[in-house]
Each structure stands twice: as structure tokens, then as C-alpha cells.
Automatic annotation (TrEMBL):
<protein>
    <submittedName>
        <fullName>Glutathione S-transferase</fullName>
    </submittedName>
</protein>
<dbReference type="InterPro" id="IPR004045">
    <property type="entry name" value="Glutathione_S-Trfase_N"/>
</dbReference>
<dbReference type="InterPro" id="IPR036282">
    <property type="entry name" value="Glutathione-S-Trfase_C_sf"/>
</dbReference>
<feature type="domain" description="GST N-terminal">
    <location>
        <begin position="1"/>
        <end position="78"/>
    </location>
</feature>
<dbReference type="GO" id="GO:0005737">
    <property type="term" value="C:cytoplasm"/>
</dbReference>
<dbReference type="Pfam" id="PF13417">
    <property type="entry name" value="GST_N_3"/>
</dbReference>
<dbReference type="GO" id="GO:0016740">
    <property type="term" value="F:transferase activity"/>
</dbReference>
<keyword id="KW-0808">Transferase</keyword>
<dbReference type="InterPro" id="IPR050983">
    <property type="entry name" value="GST_Omega/HSP26"/>
</dbReference>
<dbReference type="InterPro" id="IPR036249">
    <property type="entry name" value="Thioredoxin-like_sf"/>
</dbReference>
<dbReference type="Pfam" id="PF13410">
    <property type="entry name" value="GST_C_2"/>
</dbReference>
Length: 204
């Protein structure tokens, strides 16, 4: 199995961390959608990261759909989504918040690349508010967790996606998010990033 994309993408990284948490062997190919567009298009003409190629040669795209596929490859005790419906719905809510934070971070990064005269301040303020709302809700979830992670001692997909999102936002928007406003998330991130599966998927 092959994972194509750069680990500074939170979508690529959540798949890489999850693959290691599942204990599934894979090859990571750090191909950039920017610098290596032509090479990436040979693997996936849509040029979307992550792209995941199964052992059968099927190219999958979109991190959530890739993870849905991977859940079916491992025994129940290795899966990263809770079984009980009430836990599953909460997990999906948390994942949705973290993915929204990723999306808003990306929007703010791309907005910052525009020439100053092309930037739309009202739009930036709106996206910034959405980003902060997502992280305030995640901060509450993490602060109320009774164990090291959201559903127990072992990190599941909501933990992985939340930790990856927070690291990405802090990396990409260091001057916009004050860690003092999110102390529980900061501590949660330190615990997650110290795990071998996160260390193996680290980036500079």
C-alpha cells in the first residue's frame, strides 16, 4: 500500500498516523501537489493529497474515505472508531470539528498568499471566527476527558484528527492562535505528539 502526499498536510498526516496505529505496512511517497504536480498527476490525475493506492492498485482520495477503507482491513480491537452508537456520534462530531479547523486554517493560509489589495478583510474575519469556534469546542471536549485521550487510554480517530489539526494550525498560523487560550489542547497535543506513530509521521 502506498500513501502519496506531504506530511505537512494534515489530511496526509492523519492517514499516516492512523496507518501506524492500525499496524498496517505502507510506503510513504512525499510527492508535493505544488512542486511535483506532473509526477503526482501520473499517480492520480486529480492531483489531490492524500492519494492512497491499495495493494490491488486502486487509487483512493480524501482522507476520510481512505480511513473508512482502512477500518475494514484490521480486526475490531485495532479499529479507531468507537462501537457504541452514542460514542460513535460524539467521535464523529469531534472529527468534524477538527476537519473544519483544518479547512479554515487552509483558507486563511491561501488568503495570506493573495496580494494585500486582493484580500477581503470581512471574509478573513469570518473564517477566523469559524476557526476559533472549532477550537473552543475542541478545547471543551479535551478538557472534559477523564483519561489521557478522549475515549480512554488509547488514541482513536477523534484524538488523531484533533491532535493533527492542532499541530497543523499552530504550524501554519502561529501568530493567530494563542496557546494560552487553549491549555487543554496544548497538553493533549504534547501527549499525542510523544507517541511513536506521531513521531514517525513528524514534519518540520
Amino acid at each position: 500500500m502506498r500513501l502519496i502526499g506531504m506530511l505537512d498536510s494534515p489530511y496526509v498526516r492523519r492517514v499516516a498516523v492512523s496507518l501506524r496505529a492500525y499496524g498496517l505496512p505502507f510506503i510513504h511517497e512525499p510527492v508535493s501537489v505544488f512542486r511535483d504536480f506532473d509526477a503526482f498527476s501520473q499517480i492520480n490525475p486529480v492531483v489531490k493529497a492524500p492519494t492512497f493506492v491499495t495493494d490491488e492498485g486502486v487509487a483512493l482520495l480524501d482522507s476520510t474515505l481512505i480511513l473508512d477503507y482502512l477500518e475494514r482491513l484490521v480486526p475490531a480491537e485495532r479499529r479507531l472508531t468507537p462501537e457504541r452508537p452514542e460514542h460513535f456520534s460524539r467521535a464523529q462530531r469531534i472529527i468534524g470539528l477538527a476537519l473544519a479547523a483544518n479547512e479554515k486554517t487552509v483558507q486563511l493560509v491561501y488568503e495570506s498568499l493573495r496580494p494585500p489589495e486582493k484580500r477581503h478583510d470581512a471574509w478573513i474575519a469570518r473564517v477566523d471566527g469559524q476557526l476559533r469556534a472549532a477550537y473552543h469546542l475542541l478545547e471543551k471536549e479535551v478538557a472534559e476527558a477523564k483519561e489521557s485521550f478522549l475515549f480512554g487510554a488509547r488514541p482513536l480517530q477523534p484524538d488523531i484528527t484533533t491532535a493533527v489539526a492542532w499541530r497543523f494550525s499552530r504550524f501554519a498560523l502561529a501568530d493567530r492562535l494563542d496557546p494560552a487560550d487553549y491549555p487543554a489542547l496544548g497538553n493533549f497535543s504534547l501527549r499525542a505528539e510523544a507517541l511513536p506513530e506521531f513521531i514517525a509521521a513528524d514534519f518540520d
